[in-house]
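[09:14] KT: can someone run the structure on this one? pasting the chain below
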Amino acid sequence: MTEERAEDLAEGTLMSHLVELRNRLFWMFGSVFLVFLAMFPFSKPIFELVSEPLRKVLPGGELIAIGTASPVIATLKLSFYLSLIVAMPIVLYQLWAFVAPGLYKKEKRFAFPLLATSIILFYVGIAFAYFVVFPLVFGFLASFTPDTVNYMPDISDYVGFIMMLILVFGLAFETPVATVLLIWSGIVSIEKLTDARPYVFLGAFVVGMLLTPPDVISQIILAIPVYLLFELGIILARVFRPRAAEPAEETPVK
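[09:31] RB: done, structure tokens below
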């Protein structure tokens, strides 16, 4: 009889988790879809705004559409990517709300500030890519165009190119959060990361070489902030070093 009750309890707990997961996924996809519906009618002005850093360095100030359906596909892709970026706080909050009941009180104290910080840093990375990286990279690429060549990139290729850069820089600016999590989880210590500074500095340039377009400017622009953000993560880990857990906090708070 006891085993049957345990099985019923486990089954009920599993079903409740699955229902909760379904609800959270509904809010995630629903928020992205609603933002997409709101943005799609303005897809043309949005594309003009996003393509402005490239159009400024083009001789005619215009891009081209090679494929028959390229205008539609490019604007749809851009609207979807941007809606995902805009709805990212809601998506991350739903993930947080799903895992929060299983966290200890001490873990909740640190997890929510880290979540908020990661969202802010993600948007800072996107803004850095748009206002700093795009003008430098596109100006550098346009300067290599021979006088006999008309440099007019395809809009679909441009959307894929900028989304790659936005994702790379958005994730790169999460370096302080990743550093703090590595230290707080006990995987590495502050002392070991401090001793590994030369390797991190070299690794930042290797990552910049692998993840950015094949030009020196974007590689340097990615590598230097990544290393500086790594140093910021070490500072934050020193300042907000978690205290030893108290016995009263060792039970999950529902």
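[09:33] KT: thanks! The chain has a mean pLDDT of 79.
[09:34] RB: yep, looked fine to me
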